[in-house]
Amino acid sequence: MSGVLADSWFMAQRHLRALLRQPAWIVVTLVQPVMWLLLFGALFKAIVELPGFGADSYADFLTPGIVVMTALFSAGWAGMGLLQDYDRGILDRFLTTPASRVSILAGPLAQQSLVTIVQSLIIVGLGLLVADASFPGGVLGVIVVIVAAILLGTAVGALSNALALIVRKEETVIATVTSLTLPLSFLSGTFMDLNLAPDWIATVAKFNPLEWAVVAGREALTAESVDWAVVGTRLGLLAALVVACFVVATRAFRSYQRSV
Amino acid sequence: MAAIEAEELVKTYPGEVRALDGVSFSVEPGTIFGLLGPNGAGKSTTVKILTTLSRPDSGRATVAGHDVLADPAAVRRAVGVVGQRNAVDGEATGRENLLLQGRLYGLRGRELTARVDDLLERFRLADAGDRFAKGYSGGMQRRLDVALGLVARPQVLFLDEPTTGLDPEVRVAMWDEIAQLAREEGLTILLTTHYLEEADQLASQLAIVDRGKVVAEGGPEQLKAELRGDTILVELDDGDGDGPAVEAALGRLDGVRDVAVEGRALRARADQGARAVPAVLAALEGAGIPVASVTVARASLDDVYLRYTGRTFEEAEESQAEPAGAGAEER
Questions:
Q1: Minimal Cα distance from B51: which residue of A?
Q2: A183: which residues sit within 8 A by CB, 6+ positions away?
Q3: Which of A33, A200, B152, B317 is most solvent-facing, going by the fewest CB within 10 Å?
Q4: What is the pLDDT along chain A (260 residues), one digit of tens a residue?
């Protein structure tokens, strides 16, 4: 096991170093969430006045949702990095070393997590400073949002890598990711209080991992008195999902081995 | 004990013909073994199976005494692999590439840094070691690639088409590096190539692979010697050589055999080439087949290939240029 951890750390170093050499890239990935938070948030500001909407300020309501949604969107692309390594032969080089397969996934996912931390802090900061949100959950609330975002991002990132290993075509990964991420967002309470949504959407959302992360983050960050049972169950579900997705991804290596 | 033992390896890709159709060979420790064949013959598939990247449908193989299917982890610890493409991380420096590779094999601390310094020095990358690898020339990337395969002092080194895509001068320099490596480190090297000259220069033992099968095995000199005698190359003056007519004309000559016509090129073998030339020319003239030039040469690996597969190497390469599954990647 220590071998797996050590290998994962070495692989993570490679990706973190690449990221730190191009920090501007983080800013690029922030363009979309900032649009959602500042423009979409402003446009629908009055939505909280709907009778039954469970928040007083749309900025408070929206910010944790945008944080986890951003993690979902960028994690969807994780497989593209693996495809680049595959195209260059780097993946095969790693696969012929004694390094554990898990560590090959862990590298890009560690990078992903660092990106998520930086993005989340910036989005929360913008929510506070520009959109005038207030977060009673404080620092602990922010930490929970970030943990939820990292868990979701890691699970989705592992799946994206598995998909990339199996299809080995950038077009297929792009098509799958773009056709899944936005619907997942609309089938959750990211933008809208689900009490006011159609029943079927509320039902579907219960099985949507994005919704788990939104609920945990929003509860911890914006509730006046946090119901930790709500937060804990959602984080637990997300952690279980991470494990399941890693199992799928390591299986995908076997499928890769059969097909090359 | 053999360093590599392959027995009846079979591999079929979905929707394709058999990439390997029962490949067997054995490699003695400390030698350079060449797998020679045209593109698509199954060389890379063989390497993938022996390096645990891929699994055969049937057959078995051991590398450095470890079974590739039963104990892939032990195989991975014992081998270094240099793939067909430059598998170098361009966003990292040469040194960082080597350090990571070494760590994945469990090297740490001073042992690792000393090994990396050594390799940078030996592959003439010491000055470039701290620059990003994406800025390296093709030859430098290739050298870094080979260095990556050597970091953990493997017992067996696999070089899959080590000089494909390199300029001729760089290629010759690479041959020197490989030959030196084998001498100094006592490594077993398995090298695949579709360059006859490369196999001839480097390999002490060869397996000629064609359409997923080993068609001949032996040392280059031995394989050529088995052909006996010389090759007579006749350039016909006629647009398309009339194969059957030529064969009929030469078939009656004593000591002339293995007659093959391809376009305007006629190849035949004779125990003593120079002595057979007048008779060959007379026979062709008698059959009314005009001749542009005649050359007599010692047997080459191309002749060996022709002898065992019934086609010249060049022809095989061309027929592979547009394989059944067009655009299929090289395996």
A1: A96
A2: none
A3: A200
A4: 468 889 999 999 999 998 888 888 778 888 889 999 999 999 999 999 999 998 989 999 999 999 999 999 999 999 999 999 999 999 999 999 999 888 998 888 988 898 899 999 999 999 999 989 999 999 999 999 999 999 999 999 999 999 999 999 999 999 999 999 999 999 999 999 999 999 999 999 999 999 999 999 999 999 999 999 999 999 999 999 999 999 999 999 988 988 88
> What residue numbers bound the domain in which A65 lies?
2-44+53-259
Q: Compute CA distances B276 → A108, A214, B261, whole Å.
A: 68, 88, 18
Cβ B54–A7 below 8 Å, yes or no? no
Let me know: does B25 contact B304? Beta carbons within 8 Å.
no
Q: How close B25 comes to chain A (CA, Å)?
A: 21
pTM above 0.95, yes or no: no
- b/e for A208-221, b at 16 or more Cβ within 10 A? bbbbbbbbbbbbbb
> What does the alpha-carbon distance between residue B14 and residue B17 come to, in Å, rounded to a whole number?
8
Beta bridge partners, B35, equal B192, B207
Residues in contact with B16: Cβ distance below 8 Å, sequence separation at least 6, in sequence order:
B324, B325, B328
Cα distance between residue B218 and residue B25, in whole Å:
10
Q: How many domains does chain A have?
A: 1
